[in-house]
Design a protein that fits this description.
Layout lengths: L14 H17 L4 H8 L3 H10 L14 H15 L2 H8 L3 H15 L1 H13 L4 H8 L3 H10 L18
């Protein structure tokens, strides 16, 4: 089956076939031979579907393969993983979540903190010597989002290029 862009799509799993695939995945997962991401690749499905199938088969997926108990908890765990690893790709590999989901959860974490609280926290970090890039990496926001938030919060930005360099002529 192909979609509008010519990509091959798998047929939906329903009924007996869904139960059989769920049981097969559960057996492999319980043996500990494959991660959720590897199982997803082996059956040509997304990790999120594999997690649902494992749950349907009665398998508890505690640990890094199953992230959080609810959306807030998952967003917190993803944010913590991101702070430790420093990259979205590393979080994807640790959690088996889709890259887009990780980015969404990182943005959700920022929104939960509140823009003013986050801007104040970023301002303290920046005034303590952190660079815009470092702050962006810690918060999961882009360089431009961090810069805009600091300017909006009234923080005086240092010249670009680090200490000892003059700003670019304009």
């Amino acid at each position: 089956m192909e979609d509008d862009l010519g990509r091959t799509r798998s047929k939906p799993l329903r009924g007996q076939q869904r139960s059989e695939v769920a049981a097969e995945l559960a057996e492999q997962f319980v043996q500990g031979t494959k991660s959720i991401r590897e199982l997803a690749t082996s059956v040509g499905r997304r990790p999120s579907l594999v997690r649902r199938l494992l749950a349907e088969a009665g398998v508890r997926t505690d640990g890094p393969e199953c992230v959080g108990t609810d959306l807030d908890d998952t967003a917190r765990i993803v944010r913590d993983c991101y702070r430790r690893s420093g990259s979205v790709q590393a979080v994807v590999e640790m959690t088996s979540l889709d890259r887009r989901v990780v980015r969404h959860l990182l943005a959700l974490s920022v929104n939960q903190l509140g823009r003013s609280e986050l801007a104040a926290e970023m301002g303290h970090r920046y005034q303590a010597g952190a660079t815009l890039q470092e702050i962006a990496g810690e918060t999961g926001q882009s360089y431009n989002q961090v810069r805009a938030a600091l300017i909006e919060a009234g923080v005086s930005l240092r010249p670009p290029g680090g200490p000892g360099k003059s700003p670019h002529p304009r």
